[in-house]
Design goal:
Structural class of chain B: mainly beta
Helix content of chain B: under 10%
Low-confidence stretches of chain A: none
Low-confidence stretches of chain B: none
Mean pLDDT of chain B: 93
Strand content of chain A: over 45%
Oligomer: heterodimer
Radius of gyration of chain A: 13 Å
Structural class of chain A: mainly beta
Order of helices and strands of chain B: EEEEEEEEEEE
Shape of chain B: globular
Number of helices of chain A: 0
CATH architecture of chain A: Sandwich
CATH class of chain A: Mainly Beta
Largest sheet of chain A: 6 strands, mixed
Number of strands of chain A: 11
Chain lengths: 110, 115
């Protein structure tokens, strides 16, 4: 099956800092989503982005499908940004299985 | 309204108990999912229902039994679980499958502890 690796595994930043999270995947995809899992366990949708660039407030994401990676940018970090960020992909062979990456644990210090 | 509701939020059960986790969505989605997440690990797919029919079972032990009574509801029946089954169980839904164009939405999860 498709392999999904995220880096870095852990990131600790001061409030106000910017960060870049990376997601590498091993095959062509037709679905790529970024999620934020809050400390209570809920997975919150950030972006549906199998290709191209999107922005939503302080967050933006870019997927370069031909090079098999996606980046999530967080600017002016706030303590509420803390949690685990996952990318999840489905290969373009369309087997209806969304595979999650290994995750990046982000901790924002006041 | 992009909301998937799961009950209960917390469940403690003995190894001989029978219990159920429930999931509901009112977004008109026709695909629903159960994922299992162990501590410090990513979610792992367990089951997929498409148009109320089981389409994917990721070789899940039979002590987990899914049920889709209608297009809005998804249950996970639990029986004779083991302590290693303790985890966060996440329900999700999407318009159709997770192929191109279909965003998947997750509920808040049910924290299960087996004693």
């Amino acid at each position: 099956g498709i392999q999904v690796e995220q880096s870095p595994p852990d990131l600790i930043l001061q409030e106000g800092a910017n960060s870049t999270l990376r997601c590498n995947f091993s095959d062509s995809v037709n679905n790529l989503q970024w999620f934020h899992q809050n400390p209570w366990g809920q997975l919150i949708n950030l972006f549906y982005i199998p290709s191209g660039t999107k922005q939503n407030g302080r967050l933006s994401a870019t997927t370069v499908a031909t090079e098999r990676y996606s980046l999530l940018y967080i600017s002016s970090s706030q303590t509420t940004d803390s949690g685990v960020y996952f990318c999840a992909v489905e290969g373009d062979f369309g087997n209806e299985k969304l595979t999650f990456g290994t995750g990046t644990r982000l901790t924002i210090i006041p | 309204d992009t909301e998937v509701t799961q009950t209960p939020k917390h469940l403690v059960m003995g190894m001989t108990n029978k219990k159920s986790l429930k999931c509901e969505q009112h977004m008109g989605h026709r695909a629903m999912y159960w994922y299992k997440q162990k501590a410090k690990k990513p979610p792992e797919l367990m089951f997929v229902y498409s148009y109320e029919k089981l389409s994917i079972n990721e070789s899940v032990p039979s002590r987990f039994s899914p049920e889709c009574p209608n297009s809005s509801l998804l249950n996970l029946h639990l029986h004779a679980l083991q302590p290693e089954d303790s985890a966060l169980y996440l329900c999700a839904s999407s318009q159709a499958g997770t192929a191109a164009g279909n965003t998947i939405y997750f509920g808040e999860g049910s924290w299960l502890t087996v004693v």
